[in-house]
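Usage example:
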Amino acid sequence: MPMEVLLVEDSPGDVRLTQEAFRDANPSIRLHVATDGVEAMTFLRREGIHANAPRPDLILLDLNLPKMDGREVLAHIKEDDNLKTIPTVILTTSDAEADIVKSYQLQANCYLSKPVQLDVFESLVGSINDFWLTKVKLPQQK
Amino acid sequence: MKSKFPLKRKIQLTFGVAIAMLLAVGMISYRGMAVSDQSDRRVRHTHEVLENLQDLDGAMETVESSYRGFVITGDENSLQAYRAAIARSEQAQANIRDLTVDNSVQQLRIRNLMNLADRSMQYAETVISLRRTKGMNAAADFVREGSGEQIMDQFQERIRSMQDEELRLLVIRNTDASRRSRQFKFVLLFGTVLGLLLAMAAGWSAQRKNFESEFAEEVHKASGAKYRGLLEAAPDAMVVVNHRGEIVLLNLQAEKQFGYHRDELVGQKVKNIIPEGFAERLVADGTRSAAEALAQQIGTGIELIARRKDGTEFPIELMLSPLESAEGILVTAAIRDISVRKEAEKHLARMEGRYRGLLEAAPDAMVVVNQKGDIVLLNVQAEKQFGYRRDELVGQRVKNIIPKGFAERLIADEKRSVEDALAQQIGTGIELTGLRKNGSEFPIEIMLSPLESAEGVLVTAAIRDISVRKEAEKHLARMEGRYRGLLEAAPDAMVVVNQGGEIVLLNVQAEKQFGYRRDELLGQKVKNIIPSGFAERLIADEKRSVEDALAQQIGTGIELIARRKNGSEFPIEIMLSPLDSAEGILVTAAIRNISVRREAEKHLALMEGRYRGLLEAAPDAMVVVNPSGDIVLLNVQAEKQFGYRRDELVGQKVKNIIPEGFAERLVADGLRSAEDALAQQIGTGIELIALRKNGTEFPIEIMLSPLDSAEGILVTAAIRDISVRKEAEKHLARMEGRYRGLLEAAPDAMVVVNQKGDIVLLNVQAEKQFGYHRDELVGQRMKNIIPAGFAERLIADALRSTEDALAQQIGTGIEITGRRKDGTEFPIEIMLSPLESAEGVLVTAAIRDITTRKVAEAHLLYKVEELNRSNEELGQFAYIASHDLQEPLRMVASYTQLLARRYKGRLDSDADEFITFAVDGANRMQRLIQDLLAYSRVGTKGKELRETSSEEALQRAILNLRGAIADSGAMVTHDPLPPVLADETQLVQLFQNLIGNAIKYQNPGVPRIHISAIKNGGGKWTFSVRDNGLGIDPQYFERIFVMFQRLHKREEFAGTGIGLAICKKIVERHGGEISVQSQPGKGSTFSFALAGSGVKS
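Running the assembly step on the lines above writes:
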């Protein structure tokens, strides 16, 4: 069964990069994109246009998003009994201590700082795939 | 009674015989019953025997039939009946034997029977065994033989004869028994009848006697029933006695009183209970009959002595009354126990005796009057007073001696009882007139008191002859008109005394003063109130007459001691004056209580003495002046100060020694009184000039105080020579002037403050600074110009004294705030210094207005803050810029790299080149920005400097560089490194950059890097990182630390050139400087200083 990953990211450039990186790492992964917090919640709750959205196996979440900020999204996910079982990885440019702490307080599964260099970034994505989508045991239910 | 004796015996005898007869009868009948019992038993016995015989007969027959049966049947079972029968027969035999044991004939027969029974048994046994052994026929044959039958016949015969015998015996017995019983019956009947007859006879005889007397009683009963009831019910003891003196009747009360039981007394002589007096009275003797004797007693209550059963006697009163009776005249005596009454009478007699004694002894005439107004009793005084003999008055009406006023007062009329009438009089002394035997009247005063007696309430009157008093009263009345007004109105006590030394008259003041009532003193000797000194003075002796004696005293006030009623004494002054009277010359003494005056005099003397003492002892010159300005008193100091002798000054005008200023102040003029004038001066020390005897003047200070005296208000002046003080004051004034000069000249504002915080002195600068006028500040609290921080510092509190408080402040410039007159505040710096003065330690404060300095400081601070802020902003800006620049750069770099990756070789070579440059540029830019970020982080992300182990930091740096170190094969060594005050992360970064550089810019061969630290002065350490690398040209020593300045091409060495700039920034942040020493081709040594942490050194 192909892995479903939801990427919540507002920068299209970053989106494409991530897509490319995932394609290299594991082509079978289906990468869904939400460009702001509201859309992310709609997707996860399978509302509106996302009524038929699949339940992601992993969420990659940027912190600085328009409309609903990534921290809020994180909070919502982790408060929702239904959604909180989905591993939520913060993937953001910020490496501020405050952001790290806050994310973990909101029960992010882990925090990753986007590397500046491409190859390092690609390696990171590979690690994500390797760890979160291969090694880690995820709950079965959809 | 004569016949009683034998009759009683007769009756007794008869009764005795009767009883004996009955007893006999009883015994006989008992015997009869026993006999019949016996015959009954006999009959039963016979029946039993007969029964048993029958049983035996039956049993034997059964035996026979059963063995015969056996013979026929051969059935063993039929032998059961056989055996049972045998047992029965044996039992019967035994019974018969026992029953007939007393009859020998029958015993013989039973033995015979038993024998036969046995034989029969044996026969039976034989038959049975035959049957068993030989069979039926043999047995039958045996039986037929018939010997068994013979036995049986014999047996039965015996039985019958026994039965006959028994029956015969029975008949005999029965006959005997019936005969016996017939005998008994006869005896029984006879005896009973006889007994009864006898008893009847006896009873009848006895009854006849009772009957007679009963009859007599019956006769009287009708009339006496009521009498009996009364007797019993009577409260008194009632005893009825016949003419012989025997008690016939008595009641319950009599029983109780005398302690006897009724029948113990009835028939007894009355003498037993009333030994004497009763019986005698009743004796019918030759002179008179019982009736007559009785008649004399009847009605009267006779007092006698009675005797109880236990022998004790008690007084009784008898009341007799006759009672007709068949036996003649009986006397009913009502006996009353009068023990109590007798006691009372005795007591009364005693009292009477006592009373009589009192009466006789009384000083006053005592007359006891009864309710009717008759004199019952009187004493000898009464005899004397009224001129009567006792018996002339006893029984007479009291009216005879007290015509009016007494009896009337006592009359019990309808309105009130005697007691009430009396009650109203009791206690009061009533004035009446008494009448002597000789007809003369005299005034009396009576005091009544009641006296209970048997005769009712008596009145005891104590009668006092008040003639003398009356005379005195009359005289007084005469005098009264003349003197009453004077006397009573007199403020002093007035006492008029006659020639005999007796008080004739006195006024209310005298009463009060002496604490007596008027009448307690009238007629009394004056000695009682004035023990000594008065009476003596008045005595007319041979030498002079009363008048003369008196004349000598008249007019003068004589001081004596008087005595009050309560015994206390008090000083008096008496003034005597004569008074002509009918009784001769009386002396009127005006008596004044001079206790108070005496006290005051004593007190004054005391005060004077004390005052004199003080005056003399005073250190200052003391002069006492009277209202007119004359010196009344002075002390030795005054003598010395003014150079006069005491008596040269006393009486002189005070002006002589204090020319001006004193007398004036004291003058009582039209405007105010001496007191007011004085009041205004009192207390204040007034400075004046004094004049010595020798004419020299000297300054003085006088303190006035008033002194009450008899002569009016005197003024005590304490005079102090203040010459010395004046000198000192002058000197001080001179010094002050000098000091003032300094003060005024001072460039700073100078304020002198006393210990309480008041401004004592200030200079013109102070005036200017604070905007006050000098006198607006002098005396004011320092707080007014320096609200906070000054006064407090100076306060001498529990911990330290003013000097100490001051000492701590002296010298230091203290910055506080001053307040101007207009309320504006300004910053000041004060420098304190102490100043000894007469008033204690004063504080001189030099006050400097530091407004401008403050402004400059503030400005500086402001600038510095701005700078900091600016730097901060810059730092932030750099950080943010770098950070935000990263993003688009990342896009550019990433995508150009992707392009390169995907399309290199796919497009033409130009494209490849273009892509390469683009990628390269992007990459560089990324690195530059990262370096910038790192650089700016030194400031923004810098942490507090803390104690850090520089060795550990070095180790970390080496660890971070392990890759590069391994690759290059570099040798990194170090000396022991000290703990320093540093930001650990940055220290690591510092070491890392320097060692990294050393590795990078290496010569061929093994790079050797050594780190060391040397302590220099001021608690700092100079670290050195020495390498054997390429070295640096001295001309570039400065440049290399500048941002992005590189000495090599990019192709030669990677790097952006930020490393050393970062190092410099880190070192400068730590308060140090970084420098380099180097020789090109030999190596370089980079040095920097860090502050030691101070723990170890």
